[in-house]
Every structure is written in C-alpha cells, then in structure tokens.
Write a structure and sequence with these properties.
about 375 residues, alpha/beta, Rossmann fold, 2 domains, six-stranded parallel beta sheet
C-alpha cells in the first residue's frame, strides 16, 4: 500500500468522518499536533484513533494557532511516507520545507490542500493580487494541489497545469444530520418568519449588519424573529445593535456544539441568513433542509469561503447581488413574499443538491482521483 500522510495543524470534530473514510478507502493517515494551542475556537479531536498520529508540533505564539513549526524530518522518518497531502499555509514551516525537499531531494511527493488562493485577501485589486503571488509560486513548485472548490482551481490554473489541480468539494458528513432531522422535534418557532444566523461572531461575518436589516424588516413583517447561534469577539457590538429588541424578537443563544440542540434551531427556522463571509455553516443548514441567503462575492466583500458555491438561486436559497443593507432588506422582503413556507418550497431541490454535491461519498470520490494521481506519480519515479 502506498504510504500517504495528510499533514494538518489541527483536527476538528467535523473533519473526523472525512479522515476516517480516507484511511479506510486509501490507507491515508493524518499527522497532527500532540498539543494544539488553546487559542482556537474550534472543537478539536482528542483521544486515540487508528488513523491519527501525533507529533510535537511547535506553536511559538500561544495566541496564534496558525503559526506552526512542524518537525517534518521526524514525521517522514517515523511514518515512512512516500507522499504528503499537506495543509497549505504560509505560516507553517512544513510548507517551505516540503517544497525544498521535493525540489532538492526529489521526495516526498507533495500535494498542498487549500482554498487555492487566500479568499480572505481577495483578488480584486493589484495589491491583493500581488499579495497572493507567494502562494502561487510555492504551489507550482510541488506535484499538485487539492482545492476545496472549482473556484479555487480556476484561479490556480493561471499559475500551474490544470491536470495537477484537483477539486475535493468541502463538506461535512451530512448523513447523521439528516437522520437527526427525522428524530428531533423542533421547538415552536420564535416568530413568523423565523430567521437563523449561525457561526463564529467575528468582524468578517458582520452580524451587526444583519441586525440593522432585521429591525427594518420587522417594519414590514412585525412578527419576524431572529435567532443567532454563536459567540466571538464581535458579540458585544452585535448585542448593542439589537437595541430594545434584544431578548425579544432577537435571541442570542451563544456558542453551541450539541448537535441535537443545533438541529432544533435549524428545524425551527425558515431561512438561514449570512450577512458576511460564509463557510461550512452553509452545508450544515442545507443538510437540515433549510434554504440559505448570502451576498454574492464582490470586490468589496464579503470574502467568502468556497461554500458560497452551494448557495444557488432557486435551488438552495438566494444570493444577494447588491452588497448593502438595502440590498439584503429587499432580498428578504422579496423572498418571504414569494415563499410563505420556504422549507416546503425548497425541500426537493435542496435534497437533490445535497445528494449530488455535499455527501461524504462525493468528497471521497473526488479524492479517488488524487489517489490515482499519487500512485501514477510514484510509479513514474
């Protein structure tokens, strides 16, 4: 069996089913830190797993979970890896060492795994594009790249051969969420319509924008309610934006990881709204059959993750082209005027989309092409 390792700073709980399937299907083992830093909001995996090996990664700055020194020589010696699929970060020492080892020593075969470009930085201005060049230069110096989306691949194709770029659609294991949706009895919706916003409350998610818009929406739909699930550094500003409606039509429940309680929030909602950058919460909402609304990616923002591709007009929800409060308000008013029961209207199209695009089986099928590529690369040496 070809010895392949997946190099990751951290292993989150939502990634565990993915890594277990990759191990069962291809024999790939995850290499990660023994003692990850506490400066992260992510729900991390602990305990022993057959497909996870832990090493003494160093995090020089306790307040920075991204800067990481990887003992790559020890990792390669102890695992005997012939190929590495590595998290791609300019703040990981392994990124540079893998390039140097591949170029100077000829081994190991290396693929990076990322969004394809820094989506938080964007590509709209000359300065933004210039800031992406170190990533592009490093990417083309190894064997290939695994992107989370077709968008990332399209950007990279301008800098390296297309046949060395792969897309493994970023998703969760949606099956247990769909099973849970059949069992959980949702609480009564807090209003009609019932909006849900979920995610880490950070500046790039722009929850205060949603509150400003929601307060205007209630002038048109006075029974509307908004529930916010999450916490973060922008929580206080978000609470202040709620004004007198905090605790009334606007409910902030804080951070929540219990999936059954999360299921209740999703199932009690009519629409999940993202006023800023989106991520895997899009997949989460669609797994529960709830339509999603988010802004289009524009030069001014939001700087979405690849999951914005899963917000498809008329199939999974609606994208808002006008990146403004007025644009979001108009979209919400139009949406609820067209859909008295949004989940019923979108039930079949969301189920079809999730089955075709967002299952774990689809992601593993994407990775089967990576496995074939690696085997051919090894055979050609």
């Amino acid at each position: 069996m070809l010895k392949v390792i997946i190099l990751q700073r951290l292993v989150t709980h939502y990634r565990l089913p993915v890594f277990e399937r990759l191990w069962r299907e291809f024999g790939w083992v995850v290499v990660t830190s023994k003692a990850p830093p506490r400066a992260t909001h992510l729900n991390l995996v602990d305990g022993d797993h057959d497909f996870i090996q832990r090493f003494d990664f160093e995090f020089p700055d306790p307040g920075n979970a991204f800067r990481c020194n990887v003992p790559l020589g020890r990792v390669l010696k102890d695992t005997g890896a012939k190929a590495v699929i590595s998290e791609f970060s300019l703040r990981m020492s392994s990124t540079y060492e893998l390039v140097a080892r591949r170029r100077l020593l000829g081994a190991p075969i290396t693929l990076f795994w990322s969004h394809g470009y820094d989506m938080g930085r964007g590509l709209a201005t000359p300065g933004q594009r210039l800031g992406q060049w170190p990533r592009f230069a490093l990417a083309r110096m190894v064997d290939g790249h695994v992107c989370y989306s077709a968008e990332g691949k399209t950007v990279l194709e301008a800098h390296m051969p297309s046949e060395r770029i792969f897309v493994a659609h970023n998703t969760l294991d949606v099956t247990p969420l769909q099973d849970l949706a059949k069992r959980v009895v949702p609480p009564p919706p807090p209003g009609q319509p019932s909006l849900l916003a979920i995610g880490r409350i950070t500046e790039d998610k722009d929850f205060p924008r949603l509150l400003r818009v929601f307060l205007q929406l209630r002038e048109r739909l006075p029974d509307a309610a908004l529930t916010i699930v999450g916490d973060g550094p922008d929580a206080e500003r978000t609470r202040a934006a709620a004004g007198d409606e905090f605790g009334r039509s606007i409910i902030m429940v804080g951070e929540e990881y219990d999936e059954e309680r999360l299921a209740g929030h999703y199932l009690a909602s009519d629409l999940v709204v993202f006023p800023g950058a989106v991520g895997l919460s899009v997949n989460h909402a669609l797994a529960y059959g709830v339509p999603v609304m988010a802004f289009e990616r524009t030069p001014r923002g939001p700087h979405h993750g690849p999951e914005i591709a899963y917000v498809v007009d008329g199939a999974t929800g609606r994208r808002v082209p006008d990146f403004s409060d007025a644009g979001l308000l108009d979209a919400l008013v139009d949406f609820f005027s067209e859909h008295a029961n949004p989940k019923a209207d979108y039930k079949e199209s969301i189920a079809r989309f999730v089955g075709e695009k967002l299952t774990l089986d689809v992601m593993i099928q994407d990775f089967s092409r990576v496995d074939t590529f690696l085997r051919a690369r090894v055979a050609a040496r």
